[in-house]
């Protein structure tokens, strides 16, 4: 079966990681774009905070994918306010993740991915969330070991 990557990248770091995954596992890719642009990093964080308070969440320009042909779905995002961006959560809740393996990958200046997993598990109802990975600036690029572990563990999917 094929794998799918669904991701959003504000600064290009999440995109670079998605490209490594796509290159390694030959996945289909959906790059999400919010209907309202977030601007630079500082404006994005401020907007994310405002969305959290007001619950006014922009839509996404991508169509909801038919996930029936996928067993493994990689989901990539920046960590904002210790969580998945709200527009991504809203999009993911519309997708069918029943009996899928979801593999989250995130980028952050310093926050860990653990804080986002509850949100992701709720948004991806019916999925098993495995192999979460965070790429933080201070840690350097540790993605090769993570990709090796996924390849070994999930070889029947990818």
Could you explain how this protein is built, in words?
By secondary structure, the chain is of the alpha/beta class. The chain has one domain (3-156): Flavodoxin domain (Rossmann fold, 3-Layer(aba) Sandwich), CATH 3.40.50. It is 35% helix and 21% strand. The chain has helices spanning 13-25, 41-54, 86-92, 114-123, 143-153, and strands at 2-7, 28-31, 70-78, 101-108, 128-129, 133-136. Strands 1, 2, 3, 4, 5 and 6 form a six-stranded parallel β-sheet that branches. Helix 4 links the parallel strand 4 (101-108) and strand 5 (128-129). The chain is globular. The protein starts with a strand and ends in a 5-residue tail after the last helix. Residues 3-158 form the Flavodoxin-like domain. It is an enzyme of class 1 (oxidoreductase). Its EC number is 1.7.-.-.
Summarize the structure.
The chain is α/β, with parallel strands linked by helices. Helix content is 35%, strand content 21%. Strands 1, 2, 3, 4, 5 and 6 form a six-stranded parallel sheet that branches.
Features:
oxidoreductase activity, acting on NAD(P)H, alpha/beta, six-stranded parallel β-sheet, Rossmann fold, 158 residues, 5 helices, 35% helix, electron transfer activity, EC 1.7.-.-, 6 strands
Largest sheet: 6 strands, parallel
SSE pattern, N- to C-terminal: EHEHEHEHEEH
User: Helical element count?
Assistant: 5
Give the CA-CA distance, first to last residue. Answer: 7 Å
CATH topology term: Rossmann fold
Task: List low-confidence stretches.
Answer: none
Mean pLDDT level: 88
Number of domains: 1
Pfam families: Flavodoxin_4
Domain Flavodoxin-like: 3-158
Organism: Megasphaera vaginalis
Enzyme class: oxidoreductase
